[in-house]
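Why does residue order matter? Because the sequence determines the fold. Keep that principle in mind as you read this record.
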Amino acid sequence: MECSNAMASLDETDYETKLWPPLENAVNMLLTQQPGVYLKISYEEMYRYVYTSVCHQHSARIYEDLVNLLSENLSNFSQKLENLHGVTLLDQFHSGLKRYTQAIGCIVPIFAYLNRTYIMMQMKSDLKKELTALLNKTVIDHHVLRVLDELSAAQSKPFGCSPAVAADLVRNLNDFRPDFARIYPHLFAKYIPNILPPARADELPLYIEETHRMQQELVTSDDFRRCDQSKKRALDDTPVVPR
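Structure:
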């Protein structure tokens, strides 16, 4: 499908009042939907708005508006993270990352015609690549070290962070910024294979010592003792059947 020269001209005012508002509304909905929840948006209708905008020479404008909209949303999210710490920071960072990743997966198909005719041909880039770079610049670069520090600290405490959240967070960060695996290799290696180099035979005593240390930390932790005592009481209350 290519643009037709016979189409009636739509100027900037038409773009601002007829074409961009429904697209803006759809993108805002996608940016606020919860992970795993997919809204009922007419992709065919949204694609048609993008197609019409491009055909009437509004490619640069619609791309600028899209980036500005996403930048504002990500900036607000980044500011919200500034005041968070501990498990709350990890949970909010994780859910925001999932939400934005899911939104990208929906936004790219809507703006596919803009991507093919403008971003790829004139900018020599790709829409998904550009939106991922925007996430890196606006959110991940500002918070990733703090998030990984909090996650490392949480790993040293039993039940400090949900294992599912920790695993998903590390995998997502590795997809966006694999270079951070070099800074936190042991943390990433817990969830991603082949991060660490193969173990050498002379290193086995160190791994054994580390395993014993982790077991000792678990046994001496307050959470473990509380659970252990409750199980002990349950066993003590069990009647002994004489032989």
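The two ends are 85 Å apart (CA to CA).
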